[in-house]
Amino acid sequence: xxxxxxxxxxxxxxxxxxxxxxxxxxxxxxxxxxxxxxxxxxxxxxxxxxxxxxxxxxxxxxxxxxxxxxxxxxxxxxxxxxxxxxxxxxxxxxxxxxxxxxxxxxxxxxxxxxxxxxxxxxxxxxxxxxxxxxxxxxxxxxxxxxxxxxxxxxxxxxxxxxxxxxxxxxxxxxxxxxxxxxxxxxxxxxxxxxxxxxxxxxxxxxxxxxxxxxxxx
Length: 217
Fold this sequence. Notes:
217 residues, alpha/beta, 6 helices, globular, EEF1A lysine methyltransferase 1, Mlase_EEF1AKMT1/ZCCHC4, Efm5/EEF1AKMT1, cytoplasm, methyltransferase activity
């Protein structure tokens, strides 16, 4: 990884402008009004530490959303496995091209059922227990953020990823899972450092199995 500022992934001009407009608008409204008027805002559903929920910062969620839109292509299908903040950013309309893809959120937390047909209940302990409407290899890219930093959890989530994905995988997890992730999914670590709204004690990284100029693999 280079120390040069030129090597730091940046949001597209369209996404950056849209985020700035969003920030200006949210700063002028009370928090409750903001959640009611924008159900797709990151944080509209509060984190629940009992379910190991830690939402990405707006900038990280937007950059990851931009990445999966690019890789899915026009008309593509995106699965966000235990990564609701990326799904929310895709639906917010701040990412260029997000209106030309389909996105779904696979989550154990039924509060996300408010997203209707985009919500798919998911328990990583039953990695292949999915609705019959979810066909194998039906997603152009799968972005997954396993809830726990353990080989057992990642192994089960990997089964889900392999079932869902046509090939492309973007895994977000702790750096300590690098060897296990490589063994299970043949992914490699990116230099991009994702950020969360709350500081995590473990170093967090992204792993992919395809060439990416945005994440600088």
